[in-house]
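Internal tracking record. Fields below are filled automatically when a chain is submitted to the structure queue. Please do not edit lines marked as system-generated. If the sequence contains nonstandard residues, flag them in the REMARKS field before resubmitting.
Queue: standard
Priority: normal
Entity type: single polypeptide chain
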Amino acid sequence: MTKQHEQLNKLVANLTVLYTKLHSFHWYVKGTSFYTLHSVFEKYYDNTTESLDEVAERFLAIGGRPVSTLKGSLAIATIQEATEKETTEEMVQSVLADFKLLIADLSELMESSEEVSDQGTADMALGIKTELEKNVWMLNAYLAK
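SYSTEM-GENERATED OUTPUT FOLLOWS
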């Protein structure tokens, strides 16, 4: 498996875990920020679903085999599952950290894709990275950082 293929597979795994984590946060968020965060987490898991599908299909298009099971995803993901015990602030901080992790991974994917002249994958990664950077800015504003 090439470096780029490994990065794509890890991205698929991380998006799979993140999707499930965001659902958990959407269901279990409580407190005065419930209405705001309930909607935000739903928006994020909808966006994550789109990104996951886009990445997996791109990976297939360039000859890869994306991980497609939860067990397989958990084995290679660097994003941690939710515990169902996070406070509201811990949920937001966790999503913020996950988005930052993905941004770094996407930057590396862009570099390795450009090294093999795969502009399509680099462009896809840039689009996802740009959306995540906007989300990081908004989450930092929410936390007043």
